[in-house]
Amino acid sequence: MKTLLFAPETFNLAETTRMIEVAKTFKEEANCIFIGYSTEFSYLIEKEGFTFNLLTPYLSNKQIKEIMAFDQGKSLKNPFNYSLLKERIESEISIINQINPDAIIIGSTISLLISARHKKIPLIYVKPFALSRGHIESNSFLKNNIMRKTIQSIALKIKWLPKDMKKLIEEYQVTRFFPYTIDALDADLNCITTPDIFTNYAKLPKNSHYVGPIFANLDSPIPEKVYELLKQNKKPTIFCSLGSSANTKIVYQVLQNFSGLDVEVISPMKYFLSDDQINSLPSNVHLFDWLPAKEIQSQVTASVLHGGEGTIQTACVSGKPFIGIGLQTEQRYNILTCVSYGNALNYKSSKIKNKKIFQQCVLELLSQENLYHKAQTLKNYFDKEKNGTLKTYQLINSYLSKN
User: Fold this and answer.
1) Starting at the edge strand that comes first in sequence, how are the strands of the sheet with 51-54 ordered?
2) Where are the beta strands (DSSP E) in 148-288?
3) What does CATH list as the number for 2-215+386-402?
4) Parallel, antiparallel or unpaired: strands 103-106 and 123-127
5) What does the pLDDT read at residue 310?
6) 240, 303 Cβ separation under 8 angstroms
7) Of 27, 73, 291, 324, which is most buried, counting CB atoms within 10 Å of its CB?
8) How many helices (H) and strands (E) does the chain have?
9) What percent of the chain has pLDDT over 90?
């Protein structure tokens, strides 16, 4: 029996659930073991019957916020300094030595880009298309031809890496895996979860393959209170979720913006807010902790979402339009692909405080029939391309049989 090591950043909900879905396809034929540095969403792993190993150094809430801020471009300070990366690499080498995995499947756990290569273990990355080599090389990277070619000529030849990461790459003698900056976050095999319809069917590098959407399917029932609200409510219902990349300030402001709108709002963002903030929310906002997004989005009128790929894909498969509020570069790209297709509206995060403009956008979302028509058309496409986990399973097995 194979042993597969799964390593999402377990403070990232979408990434954790994506890894769970892939692991479930191997459950009958492989020993699937998870590792992580946070217990934020590790309970979901254990709920599905998988072993979770919490590695040191544990990530504090402060460090998670720093990682989020860096990822969103709000901070230039790289949270993965030499000592943190070094400790993580050593922890990973230790568990690799213990379990001797046949392959390691990662999300954005960058330390394993070094430790897996050092231990010569096949490394597989389940990742979105945005900002990958395939994306930068494609004609859809930028609309302006001259600007695109200029940036491509530079971006594809840069060899810069953060000095602490570069130092560790040299220490662990894996420099050959990091020829250019654009390839630094590549694995031996990259499973691209972005549907090719959103990439203009861009050609991918040899080590990358389209697998398509991978949704969270955690078999969680819709809470009775939500079910009753959906059943009895005659007003438009909005599902509002800004994901684990949001923060208290953003969540509170967005939910406050629904005050006075003739809609009911269902939101799984309770854990972001204090009791005082919760008590001061508009009466049409109904707050919860965890909710099965796919099941609820298929029953609401529309959604207001951040641009995480899993969240966007869940909206697409629901057949309902949405407003996207991108909190980082990849999220803005994901939203704009849907805006171009015609099933979404883009709302800039810089305008979150403007309640009037926000409400105008919501009213536009609810009134444009073409958005609903396009959303239904896209749903039909997603229904045909819903085997992302199966394609990933087949691709990994094929890769391992040849290597």
Assistant:
1) 51-54, 30-36, 2-7, 103-106, 123-127, 189-192, 208-210
2) 189-192, 208-210, 237-241, 264-267, 285-287
3) 3.40.50.2000
4) parallel
5) 85
6) yes
7) 324
8) 17, 13
9) 77
Which CATH fold would you assign to the domain 224-384?
Answer: Rossmann fold (3.40.50)
Nearest-angstrom CA–CA distance, 60 and 67: 11
CA 257 → CA 186, 261, 271, 281, 360, distances in Å?
A: 40, 8, 19, 10, 11
Q: Which single residue is written with the structure tokens 């040191």?
A: 56
- Stated as kind and residue range, the H or E segment containing 152 is helix 145-155
Residue 123: both structure tokens together = 């490394």
Written as one letter, the residue type at 390 is L
Strands (DSSP E) contained in 61-153 are 103-106, 123-127
- Asked if omega into 128 is within 30° of 0 (cis), the reply is no
Domain extent listing, the chain: 2-215+386-402, 224-384
**Rounded distance between C-alpha atoms, residue 161 and residue 92, angstroms:** 21
How many beta carbons lie within 10 A of that of residue 199, not counting itself? 20
